[in-house]
Amino acid sequence: MTRWKDVAAEAPDLAALARAVFTAGTNKTLATLRADGSPRISATECELGDDVTLGMMPGSRKLLDVTRDPRVALHSPTLEPPSDMQQWAGDAKLAGVLEPAPRPEDGPPGAYFWLDVREVVHTGLDEAARRLVVTSWHPGRGVTRVERD
């Protein structure tokens, strides 16, 4: 299992960017797969410590989805870009497979998971705010960067 601390050790700059964007707001978007294979998105919260940790309410649709198929994608909070695009923090995405985690001592009832991280992506702009920059990390492949006009 690839933990968040593993990503931070292997790709510290990208992990710091992604963490900053993920922690800029509370509500993230979780993509799961329905029984028929079609996507479902749901609001969620997560913690980025040594692991990416998510909790789900008992009987929720997203819990039913991940119990059946633990593959997920997680999108950072969507924040309104500033008028000065050079100040835009961008957005970030994580993808992977959820693994059951123990319920925290002070956690409400429900199911808890750690994300086995398979992908980290940060999308932002270059310093001049003229080119889109997509930086990604995958286990075994390391960091790649693509710039687009």
TrEMBL record:
Gene3D superfamilies for this protein? Electron Transport, Fmn-binding Protein, Chain A (2.30.110.10)
User: Which InterPro entries does UniProt cross-reference here?
Assistant: Split_barrel_FMN-bd
Protein name (Swiss-Prot/TrEMBL): Pyridoxamine 5-phosphate oxidase
Q: Upper lineage ranks? A: Bacteria, Bacillati, Actinomycetota, Actinomycetes, Micrococcales
